[in-house]
Specification:
By secondary structure, this protein is an alpha+beta fold. It has two helices and six strands, in the order E-H-E-E-E-H-E-E. Helices cover 21% and strands 33% of the residues. The protein is globular. It starts with 9 loop residues before the first strand and ends with a strand.
C-alpha cells in the first residue's frame, strides 16, 4: 500500500417515488454539475405500470461544472426520493450541490468503513 489512494470520486444515485419527468429533471440538473454515465439523450423510461420504477446514475463529483453557477433551480412537479452512495468526501460534495439545486430533506444516513449512504427527499426550492 502506498498511501496515495485518491478520494473515491463517484456517487451512485438511485431515484424513485416520482414520475419519469421528475426523474429526468433531477438527472439533467445533476448532469449540468457533474460528469455522468447518463448522457443528455438518455431519457428515463418506465418499464412497468404496476411495479415502482427506479432510475440509476453514477456521477463523478471530482469537478463541479462552472456552467452550474447561477443556474436557476430545477422545478419538480412533486417530491423525489434519492438514495446516494459513495465515499465520505464524494457524498459531502454531492450533498452541497444538491442543496444548491433543490430543497433537501434528510430521511436517513448510514455510514460504513469507506462509504456513506444518503437517503433524501428532494423538492423544488
Amino acid at each position: 500500500m502506498d498511501g496515495h489512494r485518491p478520494h473515491p470520486e463517484s456517487v451512485s444515485v438511485e431515484i424513485s417515488g416520482c414520475s419519469k419527468q421528475d426523474a429526468r429533471i433531477v438527472f439533467d440538473a445533476l448532469c449540468g454539475c457533474f460528469d455522468s454515465d447518463r448522457c443528455a439523450e438518455d431519457v428515463p423510461e418506465e418499464f412497468s405500470q404496476t411495479r415502482p420504477t427506479v432510475w440509476l446514475g453514477t456521477f463523478d463529483v471530482t469537478e463541479v461544472h462552472e456552467a452550474h453557477e447561477g443556474a436557476a433551480p430545477a422545478r419538480l412537479s412533486s417530491s423525489v426520493i434519492a438514495d446516494a452512495q459513495g465515499g465520505y468526501w464524494a457524498i459531502d460534495r454531492f450533498r452541497t450541490t444538491l442543496h444548491s439545486l433543490f430543497s433537501v430533506h434528510d430521511l436517513s444516513t448510514a455510514s460504513g468503513d469507506q462509504e456513506k449512504e444518503l437517503h433524501v427527499r428532494l423538492e423544488s426550492t
